[in-house]
Amino acid sequence: MAQSYKVQQEFFVDMQRCIGCRACEAACAECETNGHESMIHVNYVDRAQTIQTTVQVCMHCDDPVCANVCPADAITKDEFGIVHSANTSRCIGCSNCVMACPFGVPKKMEKYDLMMKCNMCYDRTSVGKKPMCATVCPSGALFFGTREQMEKMRPNSTPVNKFIFGQETVETKVNLMMPKGSTELKVF
Amino acid sequence: MKKLIDIKAFITATIVTILTIILVFIGSRSLQNYDAALVAYLFGTLFAIFGIVYRYTVWIQRPPTWIYVNRSFKVLFSKEFFHFSWYSIKDFVKNIMLQSFILKRGKKKGAAHLLMAIGCSLAFAITFPLTFGWIHFTLVPATGLDPNATDIYTAHFFGFAVLNFPVKSIIGFMIFGALNWCSILVIIGASYFLQKRLKEPGLIAIQTFEGDILPLLLLILVSITGLGLTLDYEFMHGKAYEFMAVTHAFFVIIFLVWMPFGKFFHIIQRPAQIGAHIYKEVGKRKGMQICKQTGKPYTTQLHIADLQLITRALGFNFRNEKGDSFLEYSPEGKRDMLANAHLKARQEAGKFFG
Ligand code: SF4
Ligand code: SF4
Question: Is the CB of A115 within 6 Å of ligand 1?
Answer without folding.
Answer: no
